[in-house]
Structure formats: structure tokens, C-alpha cells
Design brief:
By secondary structure, this protein is of the alpha+beta class. The chain is built from 14 helices and 21 strands. The longest helix has 14 residues. It starts with a strand and ends with a strand.
Length: about 525
């Protein structure tokens, strides 16, 4: 492997390869050979989640990575970060000074993959449908500032907002705002199963076994018109049950690239092995991990208990012993690389201290040890999650203030139980819908939040979130954003733990791997091509 160290500017969304691919020139596909990519980001259809690939329902990184290849949005996030740019739209922008009226003009000649024209009425149908269905995933809340959608002719769409929302262009780049064909999607019900029809760069052929997707074959859409430069004709996304199985497939040449999720051991091995023809690419990421608290649950209903947990946990130990160079301690729900970040939890609690935690509990007349159970998912965030929670358990128990147990469960049952409020403390991860501090706060603290949290702070909901969204200059929104982070650190409905880097491993005859995953963990399969083995 060739190591090339880059100086990383502190901007969000920038792809900065630490290890550059050594493939040859040229990025186009050679013949009809599919580029095969491995992932452990599996998802299934179930009674609780029967429509995993409906844009009006999907709200997780794995199904979004399928939708972003197939469903076109008005806006898209550019390679390298920055403000969103037109995709299905030819142009978009606010037409007033108050950020309450947003107009888009569609590109001429847009077509769905089946050849049907894409019109402004299809955009209105898609947005109205997501808002009407109000899926229990909570994804519709991304569009909650929309009042009405107006169309003028076949190409002009006007969004009238209930309140100022400078983040609205970002939201139009997310799959929930994807354009679907009314002939394929019922306005009154979700579309069950794994079929997707859109106007994006690829069409999808999903291979399903036992209600779980095992292979997604993306074929270049000949009708696609947008700003993306599709560098291949076909990509196969293959789903693995473990990172070790995925790594073995890469070593054998059964796949050409692997993305999420590699184990810390795999990453370390690839970093140190200079003889292999597999290149490891490291990029700054915006993934975070956090503990959520059901503030109605008896074991953590008292704020002092949550504060004591925050005072005891040692993020540095978790990072060094479990994740190594793949993560950094995080002291706010907002990643350190985003505008508006504040080290609110460090400001509130400082270094881990059993004595300070004991004082918090004593002041609230809490009898110790406090019995708690920490829940985590065994198969969604990578193999190191179990090690992380075992260490969290040890830290709490070693303090003598807690009698902590841990319990792991598969994602297909874990997520519905979390939504129903069955867990007092639960581990979750977050990949941003868009790279703005608002998206690390509002989805958990606003109405219809994604974790169905019962925690309500009226100052945050009624004043601070709306204030931050009125600021078109996101630096000017920092004051409101920082105030929200301070309140979260004091009340502890959420407890940030770490922020992760991202890794892609690809064989040396694949080009574009350094652009195949952006900082929000969005797969950009159109960037991959066949090169020449070095």
C-alpha cells in the first residue's frame, strides 16, 4: 500500500484519503463486469418494518444507501462537502429574505427509469405523500417545516414553509424528499418489500432471502439526467453477516471493495501490511455513537442518575481499548468538525470522577448502587459494539455506584423495542442526514424525534431550534446551537461517547474508492471504476 499523509482542513464533509489507491488511469467500466462491494449494513422487512425501501419510511444508513443510488432528489451534497447543489433540479433557491419560500426548476427531459417523464406534480406527490403517511420511523419530520407545495407547469415547484428554515436545501437532498412515480407508489400506504423505482443513476434488482436483502444489483439507468458522473455500468452490493466474512471475500477476490463495517483488528492489519494489493482509505467521518435515555423509565427518570453516568464514563479508555485510531472521544452530540460544536459535556463534568458522581446521587437522595441495564444491538454497528458495552458496564460497576448489566439484541428486534420505549438506557449510532449541527440535535430533541424520546425541553423546541434555522449563515446559528448543547449536557437525555473515522478497503485495480464513501457514510457507487492492477 502507498501511504500519503494529507493535511486535513477542518471542514465538514471533506473526503481526505490517508491511503491513496494505486489503480491505473481510466474510470469507466470494462464490459459488463459488475464491481462487487461488500457491506455488513444489513436490513430486513418485518412486521414492524414492512417497507424498508420506501422513501417515506426508510430512516437508516443501510436502506438510504440503496435509495441514494436509485431515487433522485432535487438537491444533492457535492463531493467534498459544502452547500447542496441541484440534482434533479436545474436550479433552486430561496425567493424571499426570510427563508420561507423556496423554488426549484426541474431539469428538462427528466425521466423515470421506465421512461415516464418526471414532472413537478411528481415532486409534489412525493413530498405530500411522505408528510401524509407520517411513518413511525419519524423520517417525515425532516420535512416538517413545509406548509404547502405548489406547482407551476411541469417544471416549477415552490415550497411554502411554516417558518424560516435555512437548512431546507439540505433536507431536499435526503431520500425522504426523493421523487417517486405515482404509478408505483400509493399515496395512502407504504410500499412493502424491496422494490424501488425512481430516476436516479441506477435501477435496482434486489435479491432477498428470508425477508432480508442479501444482494443489491445496481444497473446504470439509461434515462438518468443529473449532475452525477456514473463511471460504471453495474455495481453489486453484497451483504455479509460479519466483518470477518467480508474481509475473507476481499482477500479471495470475491469482492473488490468493502465498506462498513470493518473491525478495529482488520483496520490495524491493513494499516500495517504494506505487501498486500488491497488499499485502505481513511477519511474523516461524521458518525457518532451515543447512549440514549428513556427519561420516563424508573431506573433513569431522575436526572441525577443520568448525570452520574455522564460523570463516571471514561471516553478515552473506550476509544483507546476498543477502537484505537478509528475513533475520538466526543463531548457533544455535535461532532468536533462541524460549525457550532461545543465540548458541553466536558465543560459540565470535566474528567471522569467517582467522587463527583457520588455527590450528585447523594444530593438527590439516590440509594446506591443503582441497578441499570445497558442495551445494545449485536449486529448493526460492527463487531466492536459488544466490547464497548462490556467496558461501559465495567466502568459503571467499578465506581461502586451502579449495578450495571448489559443486554445485546439483533437490530430487527432492537430498533422496534427502542421505539416503543422498552429500554431505559440504549446504545445508538448516528450518521447525519446532512452535515449541519442542526441534524445532530433536532432529530432527537424536536417533536416526532427519531428515537421517540419522551424528553421535552420547551426552550429547545420552541425557541432555540427555530432560532438556529433562521440563520442562513450557519456560523451565526452557533449561539443557539451551543445553548442547546449546554442544556443537553445538564439534563442528559443523550450522552455522546465517540466520533468515528471511516474506512474503505479496495483492491488496487478499482478506481474511485477514495470517493466511494462520503463523510456522512453515504455510498457513492457511481464513483467506482475498473482500473489497471498495480
Amino acid at each position: 500500500m502507498n501511504r500519503k499523509t494529507l493535511v486535513l482542513p477542518a471542514v465538514m464533509g471533506l473526503l481526505a484519503p490517508v491511503l491513496a489507491a494505486c489503480g491505473g488511469s481510466g474510470g469507466g467500466a470494462q464490459g459488463d463486469d459488475a464491481i462487487v462491494v461488500g457491506t455488513t449494513d444489513r436490513f430486513a422487512a418485518s412486521k414492524e418494518a414492512p417497507a424498508p425501501l420506501d422513501p417515506a419510511y426508510a430512516y437508516d444508513n443501510a436502506p438510504w444507501n440503496v435509495l441514494r443510488q436509485t431515487i433522485q432528489t432535487l438537491m444533492t451534497m457535492p463531493d467534498g462537502g459544502g452547500d447542496p447543489e441541484p440534482e434533479a433540479a436545474e436550479k433552486c433557491g430561496f425567493t424571499d429574505t426570510g427563508s420561507e419560500r423556496y423554488a426549484c426548476t426541474l431539469r428538462e427531459g427528466l425521466k423515470f427509469a421506465n421512461g415516464d417523464p418526471v414532472t413537478a406534480s411528481d415532486v409534489k406527490f412525493s413530498i405530500d405523500r411522505a408528510l401524509r403517511l407520517k411513518a413511525d420511523s419519524g423520517v417525515f419530520a425532516l420535512l416538517s417545516t413545509i406548509d404547502t407545495v405548489e406547482t407551476r407547469g411541469d417544471r416549477e415547484v415552490i415550497f411554502h414553509l411554516k417558518t424560516a428554515d435555512a437548512t431546507f436545501p439540505f433536507k431536499l437532498s435526503t431520500p425522504v424528499a426523493g421523487i417517486v412515480n405515482p404509478d408505483d407508489y400509493d399515496k395512502n400506504r407504504l410500499r412493502d418489500g424491496f422494490s424501488v423505482d425512481g430516476s436516479g443513476p441506477y435501477t435496482l434488482d434486489a435479491k432477498v432471502k428470508n425477508d432480508e436483502i442479501v444482494k443489491a444489483v445496481f444497473t446504470k439507468n439509461p434515462h438518468y439526467k443529473g449532475q452525477l458522473d456514473v463511471k460504471n455500468d453495474k455495481v453489486e452490493l453484497r451483504y455479509f453477516g460479519s466483518s470477518s466474512a467480508m474481509g475473507t471475500a476481499l482477500q479471495k477476490g470475491d469482492i473488490s471493495m468493502m465498506a462498513r463495517t470493518m473491525s478495529p483488528e482488520q483496520i490495524k492489519k491493513l494499516q500495517n501490511d504494506k505487501s498486500t494489493d488491497i488499499n485502505l482509505i481513511e477519511q474523516p467521518g461524521l458518525e457518532i455513537r451515543y447512549l440514549g435515555f428513556n427519561t420516563n423509565a424508573p431506573q433513569v427518570k431522575t436526572r441525577a442518575v443520568r448525570q452520574a453516568v455522564a460523570q463516571v464514563i471514561n471516553r478515552g479508555e473506550i476509544v483507546s481499548k476498543v477502537y484505537g485510531t478509528g475513533a475520538d472521544p466526543l463531548y457533544s452530540m455535535v461532532p468536533a468538525s462541524l460549525t457550532g460544536h461545543s465540548n458541553s459535556f466536558f465543560n459540565e463534568y470535566g474528567n471522569p470522577s467517582t467522587d463527583k458522581a457520588a455527590a450528585l446521587l447523594a444530593k438527590a437522595n439516590i440509594t446506591t448502587p443503582v441497578k441499570v441495564t445497558l442495551h445494545y444491538t449485536t449486529d448493526h454497528y460492527g463487531p466492536a459494539t459488544k466490547d464497548e458495552f462490556e467496558l461501559l458496564q465495567k466502568q459503571l460497576n467499578d465506581s461502586g455506584l451502579f449495578d450495571a448489566d448489559i443486554k445485546g439484541e439483533k437490530w430487527t428486534t432492537y430498533r422496534p423495542k427502542e421505539q416503543k420505549g422498552e429500554y431505559g438506557i440504549f446504545g445508538m449510532g448516528w450518521f447525519p442526514d446532512f452535515p449541519d449541527a442542526d441534524n445532530y440535535l433536532a432529530p432527537f430533541l424536536d417533536k416526532n424525534n427519531t428515537i421517540n424520546s419522551p424528553y421535552v425541553n420547551k426552550e429547545i423546541r420552541d425557541d432555540l431550534i427555530p432560532q438556529s434555522r433562521r440563520e442562513a449563515d450557519r456560523l451565526s446559528a452557533s449561539k443557539s446551537i451551543e445553548e442547546i448543547q449546554t442544556i443537553v449536557a445538564q439534563d442528559v437525555p443523550l450522552l455522546p461517547v465517540w466520533q468515528g473515522n471511516q474506512y474503505v478497503a479496495a483492491r488496487s485495480d478499482i478506481t474511485g474508492a477514495e470517493r466511494a464513501l462520503n463523510s456522512s457514510a453515504t455510498l457513492q457507487l457511481w464513483e467506482l471504476g475498473h482500473g489497471v492492477r498495480s
